[in-house]
Amino acid sequence: MSEPLVEIKNLRKSFGELTVLRDVSLSVRPNEVVSVIGPSGSGKSTLLRCATLLETMDGGELTYLGQKAAYTDGSGRCVYASKEELKRIRGYFGLVFQSFNLFPHFSVLRNVTDAAIVAHRIPKEEAVETAMRLLTQFGLSDKADSYPCQLSGGQQQRVSIVRALALNPKVIYFDEPTSALDPELTGEVLKVIKELASEHMTMIIVTHEMNFAKEVSDRVIFMENGLIQVEGTPEEVFSSENERVRGFVGKLSG
Length: 254
Prior knowledge:
By secondary structure, the protein is an alpha/beta fold. It has nine helices and eleven strands.
């Protein structure tokens, strides 16, 4: 078995009096697609935000390819790696938000290339070449000079996915990638994610699209009350005898 690409151990996170994650552990290997499902408030998005260093953990351990991004020391305090190490670790992953998070005053091309050029010091010519290749692959080459306001929601989300791919990450996180879209636009975004799965891209996807999760995932995780309640193959989870899982899946699938 290959080394885990992402490993989370005993992750704890609270916001004031509210405990959001309680000893959550998750390991994802290269080329795996893992979907995270569960009701609102179960901790799914907070799990992603902690894994992508957007939220600080209260305790536990976060490791990418054997490199510790964060761990709990002997005093029980959560300690993060140095700025240089975290910068390198951030290069391992991309994150696609549910609300696109594109810069409205940047063209599509600049939205895709800006981080590569400014933060990662990639030569502009190389960044543009990569961006145009990806925009072409996902049917957006004619939108390179357009601005986000000139695109449909589905096109904006595809640009967000291209932006994440442009940095050549080892894993991409998706946080409810279709929740801000009209139903008729959801299909085009799910098609892109399925294409990435067929190319063996490692992905961790928070989603409420049950049929999609069943079709595209190697593993499915059901979260509730800040805990992973059920984990297994899509067949195991979607046929689970756990009443809470059955009720949740049945309601959304129906």
